[in-house]
Design goal:
This protein is of the alpha/beta class and 184 residues long. The protein has helices at 18-29, 57-68, 85-95, 121-133, 161-183; strands at 4-10, 34-38, 71-75, 107-114, 137-138, 144-146.
Length: 184
């Protein structure tokens, strides 16, 4: 079976983002099932409907990359009990202009990490709700990863065997979910 094209969107523009580290580890764990492309969102201007007539190049690029993806993986931190503004901004650009959203029918999974025990639970909940209103088929189940300083090494390998097993099962579940929907 051919690999699915996976667009990965990290909800942080922080240089040393622990969510980017998690996304890189997930991409490595899923390399047998997915052809991975990280989609850039940190260069998007703030969404403004006045700019829809002359769509900014970064927003057009994002829309095209989402449309070219078979599935999307959102890896998000939690800021103020929801997902970050940079991610909301990307969602707004990709869903517009009216009637030309890049999301309907896409398959997605949502995950995130933080230093806290419940990780990015509220951000994931909020993001799933927004994605579902955009016609995205979001994989069920929740995945909360408590990030510790040495959890992911410089080679993007998860150093804790129990976390590696959990994340590999998560990636496999997502590949099966996305594969079923892509076949339709």
């Amino acid at each position: 079976m051919a690999k699915l094209k996976l667009g990965v969107i990290v909800g942080s523009n922080r240089k040393e983002s622990i969510n980017r580290k998690l996304a890189l580890a997930l991409a490595k764990l899923g390399s047998d099932a997915f052809e991975v492309k990280f989609l850039q969102i940190d260069d998007l201007p703030l969404y403004n409907p006045d700019n829809e007539a002359s769509y900014p190049a970064p927003a057009t690029r994002l829309k095209n990359e989402i449309e070219a993806s078979d599935a999307l993986l959102f890896v998000t931190p939690e800021y103020g009990r929801t997902f970050p503004t940079v991610l909301k901004n990307a969602l707004d650009w990709a869903a517009r202009p009216w009637g030309k959203s890049s999301f309907p029918g896409k398959t997605a999974a949502v995950i995130g990490t933080s230093g806290g025990a419940i990780s990015s639970a509220l951000a994931q909940f909020s993001l799933r709700a927004v994605l579902s209103t955009q016609g995205v088929n979001v994989m069920g189940g929740e995945a909360y990863i408590q990030f510790k300083p040495d959890l992911i090494d410089a080679n993007n390998d998860v150093t804790d065997e129990s976390v590696t097993g959990f994340l590999k099962a998560y990636v496999n579940q997502f590949a099966a979910f996305a594969g079923k929907l892509a076949a339709k």
